[in-house]
Each structure stands twice: as C-alpha cells, then as structure tokens.
C-alpha cells in the first residue's frame, strides 16, 4: 500500500464522517421545527453507509501468460481488491412517528390543541455527533501517520 492509497482510505472515511456530522447537526438544528415546506413537522434524517471495493474490477493487474512469477504490483492489487472502503449510500428519513404535545396556544396546533413535533431525539443526535467527531479524528490521525511514514521513507533514501 502506498501513501496515496493510505490517504485515499482516510479521505473516504473523513468524507463519510463529515456527512454524518452534517446530518446530525441538521437534525439538532431542526429539533423544534413544527412546520416545514411540506406542511408537517421536520422528520429526522439518518445516514446509510455501504462498503464498496477500493479498487474497481478492471484495475487489477493481469498476470503474464506462461510466467509463474507474479509481479509485486499484481499481488498488491489483488490484495487491495479485497479492501473495502466506506461510502455514503443515501440519507433517509427516520420512520419513527412524530411526537405530540398539547399546546392550544401554539400557532401550529390542530383544533384539539395538539401540536405534532419532530421525531428528533436530541440526546441520540448528540451521541451520534460525538461518535462521528471521534471517528473523524481517528481518520485524521491515520492520514497524518501515513504522511509521517512517507517522510521517514524519504529520510532512509538520503
């Protein structure tokens, strides 16, 4: 694995965690919005991740015909074919029901005084935000470690 591969792995993780931070922040910011453009309360969002191969199928080096010795690059590419990276598959609405509260003075209350509130659980969102932040920090540390290793390798060549 070279420096660029290590940085790409870290960058994909950082991008996924940034999306998670943005969605959790959006949920917290809209935790009290009782009327959206659609007319109902804000519906919490969740990020769905998927694992995808790091290298596309066509990028694997071919083994020369009749030559039983494989090049280092072909062995490395074959190993990297099994490496999967994270990707944001989609951002979905949380299907949990809306909360209801009795407040006849609220401008969005129905005829019975019931206000439908967003299905955002602020505590869960804060925990998700902290987890995403820690995962982001781990990705930055991995990227910095890869850079330091590359710098040490350059020092060996001097």
Question: Could you characterize what this model shows?
Answer:
With 158 residues, the protein is α+β, with helices and mostly antiparallel strands. It has one domain (3-31, 45-93, 120-156). Helix content is 46%, strand content 17%. It contains 3 helices and 4 strands; from the N terminus they run αβαβββα. It has helices at 3-29, 72-81, 122-156; strands at residues 45-53, 84-93, 99-102, 114-117. The longest helix is centred in the C-terminal third of the chain and has 35 residues, at 122-156.
List keywords for this structure.
alpha+beta; 158 residues; two-stranded antiparallel sheet
In DSSP terms (H or I, runs of 4 or more residues), the helix count works out at: 3
| Spatial strand order of the main sheet | 1-2
User: Which spans have pLDDT < 50 for at least 5 consecutive residues?
Assistant: 58-66
Cα-based radius of gyration, to the nearest Å: 24 Å
Count of structural domains:
1
Give helix and strand order, one letter per element, not per position.
HEHEEEH
Q: What portion of the residues fall into strands of 2 or more residues? A: 15-25%
Name the overall outline.
Answer: elongated
Instruction: Compute the average pLDDT.
Output: 85
Biggest beta-sheet profile: 2 strands, antiparallel
Structural class by sheet pairing and helices = alpha+beta
């Amino acid at each position: 694995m070279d420096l660029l591969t290590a940085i790409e792995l870290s960058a994909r993780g950082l991008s996924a965690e940034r999306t998670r931070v943005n969605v959790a922040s959006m949920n917290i910011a809209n935790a009290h919005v009782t009327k959206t453009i659609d007319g109902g309360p804000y519906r919490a969002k969740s990020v769905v991740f998927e694992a995808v191969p790091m290298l596309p199928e066509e990028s694997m080096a071919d083994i020369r015909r009749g030559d039983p010795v494989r090049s280092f690059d072909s062995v490395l590419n074959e190993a990297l074919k099994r490496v999967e990276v994270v990707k944001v598959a989609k951002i979905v609405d949380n299907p949990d029901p809306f909360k209801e509260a009795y407040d006849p003075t609220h401008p969005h209350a129905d005829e019975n005084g019931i206000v439908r509130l967003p299905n955002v659980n602020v505590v869960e969102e804060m925990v998700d935000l902290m987890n995403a932040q820690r995962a982001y920090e781990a990705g930055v540390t991995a990227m910095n470690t890869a850079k330091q290793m590359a710098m040490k390798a350059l020092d060996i060549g001097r």
